[in-house]
Amino acid sequence: MTALLSGFALGFSLILAIGAQNAFILRQGIRGEHVGPVVLVC
Q1: Residue 15 · residue 7 · CB < 8 Å
Q2: How many domains does the chain divide into?
Q3: What range does the domain containing 15 cover?
Q4: Which of 42, 6, 7, 3 is nearest to 24 (CA)?
Q5: CB 3 within 8 A of CB 24
Q6: Is residue 33 situated within a structural domain?
Q7: What pTM did the predictor assign?
Q8: Do the Cβ atoms of 4 and 14 come closer than 8 Å?
């Protein structure tokens, strides 16, 4: 049971981290600021 909860927590944290990165990329693209460097880094 602990392995199931551990896996669920890990998956949830990865989804949150990736979601935050995508929000940052979308925000920068909409503003048109630093698009080239953001694309190269991310």
Answers
A1: no
A2: 1
A3: 10-41
A4: 42
A5: no
A6: yes
A7: 0.47
A8: no
- Cα gap 38→22, rounded to integer Å: 11
> Token match 């392995």: residue?
3
Token readout for 33 is: 């600021």
Query: In the prediction, which pLDDT does 37 show?
Result: 85
Q: What six digits make up the tokens of 16?
A: 């949150």
The DSSP 8-state label assigned to residue 32 in this structure reads T
Q: What are the start-end ranges of the H helices in 1-42?
A: 2-31, 35-41
Assess if residue 17 is contained within a domain: yes
Predicted local distance difference test score (pLDDT) of residue 20: 74
For residue range 1-42, list pLDDT tens digits in order.
798 889 888 888 877 777 777 878 888 888 888 888 877 887
